[in-house]
Design brief:
alpha+beta; four-stranded antiparallel beta sheet; 4 strands; about 60% helix; elongated
Length: about 140
């Protein structure tokens, strides 16, 4: 009897874990948009394919290298360059914060496994990879 209960519980867990709802492209587009608004690249990478993730990582690495280079400058240079850098980063953050995430539309792609999501009017390609919609080039 104990084996039957264990098997029934195990079967139920397996069945329920296999029944997770696939998010639709519009939901993924909204999540991508919200991650971009706050420049949350860790969150963004949850919705990107491998190649896009590598590009995000490379961009983050370059940003960190720039910060390191600025910090290594002599104080008289560092302060003025840091102000310019901070000003540029503030402009980027503002531009990202201004992205409109309320009007996201989905268009069919070239096949069943691709979609084009318009985020703030700009086309973003999604591809179905391992049953999940991912941002791709």
């Amino acid at each position: 009897m104990k084996k039957i209960i264990v098997l029934a519980v195990s079967a139920s867990v397996l069945f329920l874990s296999g029944c997770t709802k696939q998010e639709d492209p519009k939901e993924i587009g909204t999540k991508i948009c919200k991650a971009l608004q706050v420049m949350d690249f860790t969150e963004l990478k949850k919705y990107t394919d491998e190649e896009s993730t590598k590009e995000i990582d490379a961009g983050q690495k370059k940003l960190e290298e720039a910060k390191t280079q600025i910090a290594a400058l002599p104080a008289e240079q560092r302060d003025s360059i840091q102000k310019v850098f901070d000003g540029q980063m503030a402009m980027v953050k503002q531009k990202m914060a201004d992205i409109n995430c309320t009007n996201i539309t989905v268009q069919d792609g070239s096949d069943k496994e691709s979609k084009v999501v318009l985020i703030d009017g700009k086309p973003t390609k999604l591809k179905l990879i391992e049953n999940k919609w991912k941002l791709t080039k």
